[in-house]
Amino acid sequence: MKTKKRSSFSRLAYSKKLAPYLFILPFVIAFCVFFAYPIMETFSMSFQKVINLNTGRFVGFKNYARLDNAHFFNALKTSTIYTLCMVCIMLIMPITLAVFLNSKMLKLKNFFRSVIFIPALVSTISAGIAFRLIFGDTDIGFVNSIIVKLGGEPIQWKMGYATGIFIMVILASWREMGINMIYCLSALQTISAELYESAEMDGANKFQQFVFITIPQVKPIIIYVLTLTIINGYRMFTEGYVYWNETNPGDNGLTIVRYIYNQAFQKNDMGLGSAIGVVLLLIILVINLIQLKGFGMFDKEDR
Amino acid sequence: MKKRALFMSIAAMTMAASMTSFAAEPTELTVWVSNELHNSIFEFGEKAYNEAHPDAPVDVNVEVYANAEMAEKLLIALQSGTGAPDIADININYFANYCGEDCQLIELDDIVADVIDDCIASRFDIYKFNDHYYGIPTHVGAMFTYYNMDIMEQAGYTIEDVNAIKTWDQYYEIGADVLEKTGIPMTAYEVSNQRPFWPMIVSRGGDYLDENGDVVLDSEVNIDTLNYMLDQYNAGVAVQAAGGNTSVEEFWTAMNKGSYASLSMPSWFMSRFINYMPDLKGKIAVRLMPIMAEGDASVVGIGGTGTAITNQCENVELAKEVLSLSKLTYEANVNIWTSLMFDPVRVDTWKDDALTAPSEYFYNESPFTLLSEYVEGGGEVLSPNNKALSADAQDVVNNSAMYNAFLGGMSAEDTLAEAAQELRDKQY
After folding, report:
1. Which residues of chain A have pLDDT under 50?
2. Interchain proximity A136–B404, CB inside 8 Å
3. B19 pLDDT exceeds 70?
């Protein structure tokens, strides 16, 4: 009896039809419990006035209609500008740094690699506290004290919209530069040296080599970095929270996720919070689909 | 046989141990607070309770969380029906969140009724929803104006001149003179928070919400007050608080350096002075906040923390008694002053020696002399209306209205009309 059972089980496990499903089952379960179910629940809550986590009243599209307010659009604008800035920086800087750090001429390569990578290991909160003090509003803040010494007026970093975006971008770039550089660096190292040799023989200069060999070869990694940057940009919360931890004067530093946090958890307005979450999901989805399509990721021939 | 004997003796020992521990086993009460300083309130109550009931002691476990984090944790614990503490110290900004359609807090009407006649009633009203009290206030949070006497004297004003200031007009007249003579602005306004705008309008009978919870943010009184503030601001007599509000390091440094001649903040700011502005020791004279016109209230209670018992508490009567002993008895109120420097809500304690003792930091005076005089003279102590939209209203003022008026160049009418509209849109 026992042996018979075992054999039937092993037959199942070795079955070519069933085995793949058996192997992905743990992931599918985790996906359903921790991803699909919460998304469905969020979707349903976005149509409710949530009174208790278990009780709510359906209010139709009212929560979505309430998104038509200045704060939501300010948050959307802030997140978009922030993401654009991050994309520009992450498109150019990591690959440039990687090319330099990959060059044979550079000395102390490992030292520079570590210096650029170490910020990625620091938590945003602890780095943020340091940055908040560096960009203090009065003339005794670090950056302001330099500006004052150079004869300028102290800047109220957290009170202005542009300066607000700037200090968030600085903090995020400082942290994320290193990890993206490592991706680019590892991609660079897979490029065969023969390509460069033959290009040199054909008379291509260093810049032409960079444009016609390096860039196409690391394109998949750049797409990867770009995709992650866009997703992280729209999901950004902490970089804003460390600077404006109580209030967002003039909506400075108010990102979409901060708006979700304010409404859902601080105001106990889970319905509105869920509606913002659904809209955010759609935004990221659409942008990424357009971007991936643009890069030809869905073309069969490319694979 | 041997084994069995061993087993028996172990069993007997464990039984004996559990029985002795049963006799002295204290009942546990969990308390969540959002500020470490508040621990001493509940430690005091625990001690008082255990002295009164040595046979049935209580063990109060205080857990400290960051302000917003605690509010969030409590919300989820209450909504999911598990994991909430017995007692929670809830910041007034979040209090209305828990008292919506399905209130998860316990009514405290009985313990409030015992003491309310000795207390500032308006401080209890802020935690009153549907005619029931759900929170016990920690302090009055009376608005004071703190004068830096060094700067005032530099401009030629004595303490008698400061004593004579009764109205905002007198205050700003002197302020303009101080600015002219010393170059130092008279006061600082918060642009990413709501003071002194909120206390100023409440003193005149204005507020963000009325007693029914409807939005009155764009009322005549409020617009008039904001215009008045803008006039002072544009004249340079009042300036933006460094860092945007009075709770940040930048502001404390600036105040400590003597960047402002005076400041209007609630009573709890006294402990900020002592902790963060050591250079002002002996120079700060505490006076009642000026008023706009005869009939306005000189004392307005702003801010606060309401202590509530949650519906997940298993020993409600015990929790109520501990809460009373922590925050409502005469001794507890004296303790709130001596341990935390908060102005207690029991008026009868204001004459206690512990409260009238002069403070070296504050010009060798006690603020309670002025408070007692005011209340005995029939003066009213007003508090803002705390209703369902309160947290939203404060947010709109903190994030938009003050910023738009002082930094964005919007007029008082437009600023408040826009903010009020935003709030009205939320009433659905």
Report:
1. 1, 302-303
2. no
3. no
